[in-house]
Amino acid sequence: MPKTILFVDEEPLIQKALQRALHNGQQEWHMRFVSSPQEGLAAMAEQAAEVLVTEVAFTGQNGLEFLIAVRKRYPQTARIILSGYVDRDILLKFSDLAHQFISKPAEAEELKAAIGRAFMIKELLAQDALKQVAARIKALPSLPSLYQELVRLLRSEEASVQQVGELIAKDMGMSAKLLKLVNSSYFGLPQQVTSPAKAVALLGLDLTGAMVLASGAFEQFNAIRIKGFSLAQMWDHAMAVAALSKIIAAEAGFGRGKVDAAFMAGLLHDIGKLLIAAHLTDSFVSIIQHMQAKACAMVAAEREILGTTHAALGAYLLGLWGLPDRIIAAAAFHHDLSSEPVPELSSTAIVHLADVFANALFYLSDSRQPLEGLDTAWLERSGIVDKIPAWRVLCADRFQNGH
Ligand SMILES: [Fe+2]
Ligand SMILES: [Fe+2]
What we know:
The chain has helices spanning 12-23, 37-46, 63-73, 88-94, 108-125, 128-136, 145-155, 161-169, 172-182, 196-203, 205-219, 231-251, 256-268, 271-279, 281-294, 298-306, 310-320, 325-333, 347-359, 376-381, 388-401; strands at residues 3-8, 29-34, 51-54, 57-58, 61-62, 78-83, 100-103. The chain has 403 residues and is of the alpha/beta class. It folds into 3 domains: 3-126, Response regulator (Rossmann fold), CATH 3.40.50; 143-219, no CATH class; 222-403, Hypothetical protein af1432 (Orthogonal Bundle). It has a 5-stranded parallel sheet, sandwiched between helices. The chain has a two-stranded antiparallel sheet with strand order 4-5. The longest helix is centred in the middle third of the chain and has 21 residues, at 231-251. The radius of gyration is 21 Å and the shape is globular. The structure holds fe (ii) ion (2 copies). Residues 237, 241, 269-270, 355 line the site of one fe (ii) ion.
């Protein structure tokens, strides 16, 4: 079965450039190009594409309405916005209408990776074993209400750091978590921060949003009572992986958007473990026993007992919540980099490294100690492996300074 992609862009030059950029070596991709939302809908009616790549600005036609129509009529189609618009307000308006957002001019590699990622996620989520296990979970956690409130606030015209700070301050648990984060060694601030508004100003709205989402999601698992499982420990691990992901992404020279995405991906990467512990408790206990008996990794035990992994289940939940593909891919493949479509330092690779570092935090500064679980073969292929020792030292320093 060829993988079908529909491109919608009224600029003939962009169409040509896309054709040239993507044709090389992508024989299994079946690509169609049209120039307007109207033609786009007609092309979809003829044959629904698996992936849609579209501009949102068209003369005389509304790209927003087009995306709403596609979402309604073809919910299975992955939607990627490729646009010259990078305006924050527009991004927020479109954020839940698209799985990925790429700004023009885009590198061919970036676009290939985005499309490849969309196909990878579709394939993963279509696996029978995953669908069967997900069906056994009766009540999936919902998108946290404070997060929904925050998104609504950010969408309004007059959203300010002050207002976001006030919203957060109403929730004491959330305020405490936010303050703990900004005052942790990872942020290396000279002074203690004591007000939520100041914390929001320091973190920025995107990181604050990520914290509100993750913390609200974790709260829904408060009732888990299993021997050997600690939600507090899971939260600490999520925070460590998020902070280390942010440090690595910034050190690698990424822009703000990618750094913030890496942080969010780090926070949510193991959320599938909570799903298993809360809803498939017997399996969770068997998984732990299996790990101990066979001295194997958790994902290996999960495959044995469940037929799927916490990584896939987490990706499934994040997909239901409509989070960006980058975040879903990081959760899905953080133990399996070979599934990454392009060998480059993606959010997935960053979270993989941060996860390995976080699990080795107490001996990270001792470079003689080997790192467990590192996907060395993939990291070698992607040319990232040489950078790891320096990142390791940097992360170890940040951690040690505060302890
Ligand atoms: Fe994991
Ligand atoms: Fe982890």
